[in-house]
Amino acid sequence: MSTNKPRLAIISDLWGTRGTEWVEYYLQSLKPTYDVAFYDSCMLAGFDCTNLQEEEIHGKMVAGGIEAAAARLLEQEKGPVDILAFSVGGTIAWKAMLLGLTVGSVYLVSSTRLRYETSKPEAKIYLTYGEADEYRPSEEWFEELGLEHILIKHEGHTLYRKESNARRICEQIKGKQALQV
Known about the structure:
By secondary structure, the chain is of the alpha/beta class. The chain is built from 6 helices and 6 strands; from the N terminus they run βαβααβαββαβα. It has helices at residues 23-30, 41-45, 54-76, 88-98, 139-145, 163-180, and strands spanning 7-11, 35-39, 81-86, 103-109, 124-130, 149-152. Strands 2-1-3-4-5-6 form a 6-stranded parallel sheet, sandwiched between helices. β1, α1 (23-30) and β2 (35-39) form a beta-alpha-beta unit. α1 (23-30) runs parallel beside α6 (163-180) and α3 runs parallel beside α4 (88-98). The protein starts with 6 loop residues before the first strand and ends with a helix.
């Protein structure tokens, strides 16, 4: 079924679909504006994380899961697409863009593993981190890659799970999207 709405891929955090009630904030807000597809980062990576502990999921992601997920996302999304991704989902999106995924705008929230990236993909990149997230990229990293970012005061890594922050992030996305039309 074709739609006149722009495509938006939402990519989960490390937990995939487990404990993702918070994703509903984003879906309810963004579905009127976008043709939305939700991706479970673990399923993209090729494993079921339902019965795994955080350390096990993280280990699988770092040991090739992120790259596998990026390749699978590239197969699934033919572009052009906008992306909203959380935590490891942001790294998956970044790597998919470096592999050639055509993305207009990408909104990455708490994507701390980006601090290891040295190449910047072609897209309008919007980065959001919690001020108290100790693993966010350094100011030097942002400068080296020529990227701007938003810091949300008094928030940590899982800031995106709070409804008030979700509202702010969605308003940013809808505002940027409206400027592109």
